[in-house]
DNA sequence: ATAACAAAACGCAACGTCACGTTATTGATT
DNA sequence: AATCAATAACGTGACGTTGCGTTTTGTTAT
């Protein structure tokens, strides 16, 4: 790229300011939540002008979306040998961010604001969710290849069932998702075994 | 109740104004969506003062929540003789409001705003969701009684799986839920049969 | 020279509250 | 029976506040 060689004239953008904004936004997100997070508050804490923030991001929702994106950019699940364990690992990876108490509200909050703009919806969907689905497909495919699921299994449907439960419990109702829940989910999705009440 | 007998002095609250506000809010919700819905806009269309709105509801989210509550106040599912059909009927009843294109965003939007206030969260949960869960428990219990599910089935878990898929697809990603999807869901939850790809 | 920077101010939109005069109902007084 | 406070919700309109996204100004780094 010639962009890197021929540096632009004038003062270059400060990566330091960029990172300070992200850090400040992350902190404030954890402290006050998405609804009470303001651009002006972020600028003040980052020691940065609002102008600088708007030079990098076009809205509060977009800024928050970038923060939310990172922990969700899921790497591949290593093959443990047991496809069921791989699925469980994938579930835990999805759930993990929800354990941060600010994450769920911020996720739904950002999604909600981005929905005001009809094209922001697609942007969010593409940016946040596409990586997860690819990872999920790969994991379920291992189960199909191992013969644990029929060859013509509707994998995307299973991904929606899985994601649905996790989002519903974790992000919407903010209930913790336990190891027990993971076990029940794998049993239901792969083996078709209904969940049993835990003898407490 | 003595409240009804001994009416308060002064001008009584206008049920007409109350209903006009609800109607106007419902219209505007369908026209501009939750995010762009304003109290002032509702007041203007209803021909009502903002004060009157705040006399009945304490926030936009609370007002919208009342609108959302009505279609969800689920009646009992009649016993068709086939518990599986009862479950399918329950699923269709949950999905039905999502066919209104404004409903899903309004649901997530109102929920999100109510979460800013930590006690509004409980209010929403109690008001919107409790009825659905009772209905769902009854339907799954019929399956248990009929021997289609083990006696110690964790019914609440199944309700979460079911609700999760429906909310995830219908309210969050705004995808239509087809008869095919209903069939797959019943097969998975009750019979443990994985969903198959539809030969299109 | 040029462009990103921080700071500060702008206009805008919506918020929630308030004071005002009006209207509807109740309870006491004629 | 008719009248008249007292009361309370009404619609209107204006208020100050907040946060937005933009614009301006002077400074700093390349």
From TrEMBL, chains A, B:
Coiled coil regions, renumbered to chain: none
Pfam family of the protein (one): TetR_C_11
Record key words, sorted: DNA-binding, Transcription, Transcription regulation
Residue ranges occupied by any HTH tetR-type domain in the UniProt entry: 15-75
Xref: InterPro entries: Homeodomain-like_sf, HTH-type_TetR-like_transc_reg, HTH_TetR, Tet_transcr_reg_TetR-rel_C_sf, TetR_C
GO molecular function: DNA-binding transcription factor activity; transcription cis-regulatory region binding
PROSITE patterns: HTH_TETR_2
Residue ranges flagged as DNA-binding region: 38-57
Gene3D superfamilies per the UniProt record, alphabetical: Homeodomain-like, Tetracycline Repressor, domain 2
Protein name: AcrR family transcriptional regulator
Species assigned in the record: Planomonospora venezuelensis
């Amino acid at each position: 790229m010639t962009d890197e060689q021929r540096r632009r004239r004038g003062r270059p953008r400060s990566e330091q300011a960029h990172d300070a904004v992200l850090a400040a936004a992350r902190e404030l997100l954890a402290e006050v939540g998405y609804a009470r997070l303001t651009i002006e508050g972020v600028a003040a804490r980052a020691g940065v002008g609002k102008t600088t923030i708007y030079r990098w991001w076009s809205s509060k929702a977009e800024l928050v979306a970038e923060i939310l994106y990172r922990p969700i950019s899921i790497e591949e699940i290593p093959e443990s040998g047991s496809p069921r364990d791989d699925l469980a690992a994938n579930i835990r990876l999805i759930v993990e961010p929800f354990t941060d108490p600010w994450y769920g509200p911020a996720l739904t909050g950002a999604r909600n604001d981005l929905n005001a703009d009809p094209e922001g919806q697609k942007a969010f969907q593409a940016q946040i969710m596409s990586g997860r689905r690819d990872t999920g497909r790969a994991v379920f495919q291992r189960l199909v290849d191992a013969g644990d699921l029929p060859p013509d299994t509707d994998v995307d449907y299973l991904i929606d069932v899985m994601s649905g439960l996790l989002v519903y419990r974790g992000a919407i109702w903010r209930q913790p998702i336990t190891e027990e829940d993971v076990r029940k989910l794998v049993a239901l999705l792969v083996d078709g075994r209904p969940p049993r009440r835990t003898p407490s």
